[in-house]
Structure formats: structure tokens, C-alpha cells
Amino acid sequence: MELRVVAVSAPEWPDGRPNPQVLTSADPVSLFNACRVAAVSSSDVNSPWADSNWAGERKVRRANVLLLHSADSEHLSSLEKLLLGEKPNLLLIGAMSLCLPGAVACARLARAILGNDVLIVLGGRHVNETFFLDRLGMIRHHPASPLVLTAAKLIPDLFDIFVSGDGEYVIEAIGRLVVRTLKQGLEVRCAANSLEMLRLAPGRWLAGTVLEGKIRQVASSGPNLDRDTLPPPVSVFGARAKFDVFPGRITAHAFSDSGSGCVFDCDFCSERRSVSGPPIGLTKSARRLHRQLKAAYSAISEDTPEMGISAFVEDSTLLGGSEPPTQELVKLLSTDSLDMIFGAQYTIDQILRQKNLITALRNVGLRYLFVGLETFDPAQVGGMHKDLSRTPWVQRAEDVFSFLHAAGIGCGVAILFGLGENQISRLRLLDQLATWRTRYDLPRPISLNWAVKHPLRERDRETGYRYLKWGTPSGPYVEAFRNFAEASLNYCLPGKSPPTLDELEEINAAYQFATDERSEHECLSAP
Predict the structure, then answer these.
(1) Is residue 384 part of a domain?
(2) Fewest CB within 10 A of the end CB: N or C in the chain?
(3) Using CA of residue 185, residue 191, residue 197, residue 200, what is the dihedral sign?
(4) Which helix (H) or strand (E) holds 251?
(5) Has residue 331 got a pLDDT over 90?
(6) Most distant CA pair in the chain: distance in Å?
């Protein structure tokens, strides 16, 4: 076995555990997507991936892909055990910006155990947002680019290759490059000297390395991704997540593979279309999503036949909120006889505009929608691109919960604070959600978030953030943020102050009240 691969999703927190109520998944979804072509290659006898520790059943590959939440000794010990057992010569690390210190911690541990016998590759959203092509097609680096930080010796010389963009085929090509390097009798880290050999891998991607303090980089010149033929990640990695909103069922993550951007361009969002790009290939998106949903049904049926089957569609909004592909999805699902339910994401206004279409989706398996609420007064935070109506937000949100309750569709909500709203506004929002939960049995769950400034491909130069430190250092704030899915003390939006511990105490108390089971009278009479 020449190629031995481990992939890890880097931790976001320095220590501690998230509240079990926080909306998280047991599956490292982004890693599965990035590695799916390599995983398929492990079944191709003509590929070096077939002679790797990823060859075989789905559970074999899953065992070599790890999701970490924090970097304390308890959590890193699981990575240490995996590294000692597999002795990988290729380590793939995926990281968001808040996870950059965690990625460094993982790479440092790998170097301590394996020395130079492992090629360490860093990718993920942070690299995507800091190492990129500008509108003129020129390679650019944000000040927080890990290549820039490595060249400046602000992070240790731990990573060998940095990958930005479409990772599916270039990761498979890096595996082949590792095998070629080993066959030449060279130290595996020497593979980074041959970036040019990756150039023809399909997709729009960049790869870089730092040699003798200087950045070397290469841009892909191969064909674009054929999104219609990308394998569903669940078919090669399976699923083990169990979403509470789908009780008694395994929940797979499904995608329409229509790009990583959102149709909207809200200034605070890391998925805004001007940064991540607009949706791609919507005309065939329903067929791609339908294929992934059927793959989820097959994989879960085979791996855990005793469990029910569900899926959550990870598009920023289901099929971009576009009606023609959604209508096509309804037709495709209506021809199936699958005992399967699913959920998706929409905006408040999309739901209000497409009630008939959502009812049709309900008839073919839709049982859950997830929406975002930032404030009841968008003007207070400078406005939102997705705010498409003059009707007050609070009225539109109530219309949505009332409609979904009557339609028999569950609904959860992600709340985003830290945009410039005041504390009174935050507490009023949580109090209103408590009332709605009693009146409509919605929303469930309520996911708290505090706005984090992401690199956004140089749209944040005014902050100077380089993400070298943990977003929230060890101490009282880690516990205070325990109810939050994403939050940071150090990387707030420009001009916005981090919350005080007293404010977080009030928010957490109001959150606990909102998520408790109370009568409508108790909610309406709450202070």
C-alpha cells in the first residue's frame, strides 16, 4: 500500500464542547465533497488510489476522515490515534477562517508524529477566500493567506501545499503526485516541488507552496468541472448524522452542485454572490439534486437498513430559489416511491412567494425548512440584499411560521447577532421566537450566531485580520458562546464591538427561555 491518506476538518474552538442543542452534523460535509473524486478513484484499478487505505467499503474511507470541534487534548487525541494507526503520507486539512489555529495545531501534531514522511495539504473556505483569482484573472493574496503567513514565518513551516477553489480533481491528482514522488525515492514533501504536474486537473483551482521563503503557485488550465458527472459524496462516504428534526432517521447531506455562492449579496455573509460567485448550471440542478437524494436513499438503505432515511439539502437556498428547477424536482420526486423525507434552506421572502410550490414539495417529501433572521429592523444594520418587501420582517416571519405550521412542515431558524443591532433588539427577537414556538410549535431549533468577519477575497482590508489567534481564546467567553454555532470575540465586523459577558448572559437566558416548553400565556406575559 503506497498511498495512505487521512483527512481532517480542523477545529474551531481551542477547548470545550458545543451545546448539544447547537445545530451541527457528525459528517465533515465539505471534506466529503472535496475528496469524492479521489474516493471514487479508489475503486479504479488503474489509479494509485486503488492501492490506498481508502480502497474498499464506505466505512473504510469514513474511518480515515475526521471532524474535530476543539483542539483540547481530549479531541486531538482522536487525531493522534488515527495518525499513529494509519501513518498517512498524505494529510488533507480543511479549515474555515476561525479554524486556522486549529489547522496549525493538527499539522503540528502530524509533524511531531510523522516528521517529513507526510505531505500536508491545507484547503477549505479560508484558503478559498485568501488565495484567489481577481476579476482580471490575476492571482491575489489576502493578508491572511496562509501562503503569505508561512512565507513571513508568522505560522510555522508545516503545510506543503495550499489548494484554493474546486478541490475534487486536484486532490485526486495530489495523491498520484505523492505516489510518483515515493517511486522516485524522494522524501514525500518533495511532491510540493512539482505543482506544475497538477495543472491539467479539471476545475477552477489554485495550488501554492512556500519554498525557501518564497511563494510558488500554479493556476489550473484543465477543463471546467462537469458538475453533472460529479459523484454524490454520500455514495462514497455514506452518512451517519442524525438530525433531531428527522427523528429515527439517518440524515445525509445533499447538494445540487450549483456553486458555493448564494443568489443574494448581503454584505455580512461569506456566501454572498459577489465573493463566492453566483449559482452555476441551474438548468440541470434539479437532476443533480435528485440524483444525490436517490444516492442517499441507496447508501443509507445499504449501510443502516434498520434506520429511516432523510436528507438535508445544503444549497444556500434550495436550487437558488428558482422556480423552474424546483418544479422539475417535484416532478422527478413524484415518480419515485422512496420512503424518504428531506429538508432545505430558504429565505423568508422566498417562502412567501412560493407557497404553492412548497406545498407541492411537501407532497414529495419536504418536511423541514431552515431560515435566517438577523433583525426585525434591517435599517438598523444597514439593510439586507435579501430584504425584498416593505412589509415588516416580524409580520413576514409570522406569516411563514403560520403557513408552515398549517402545511405540516417543520422549521428552524438561524439568528445572527453582531450586525449593529442593540441589545434590546436582540432580546425582543428571542422573546418573539418564544411566543411563536408556543403558538405554532415553530421554530425548532433556534441556532444562535454572532457575526464573524470573513476574509471575503480582500473585501475586508480595513480590519487587518490575519486569523492567527483563536477567534475566541480559552476562558469565560468560550463557555458564554457555548450556545452559538459560529461566534468570535476577536473577529467581529468592522466598527462593531464584541458582546460583553453581561450581554451574553442576558442572551443565553433569553435563549433558554425561548427554547423551553411554555404555555402561550406564559410567553405572551413574559417581561
Answers:
(1) no
(2) C
(3) positive
(4) strand 249-254
(5) yes
(6) 75
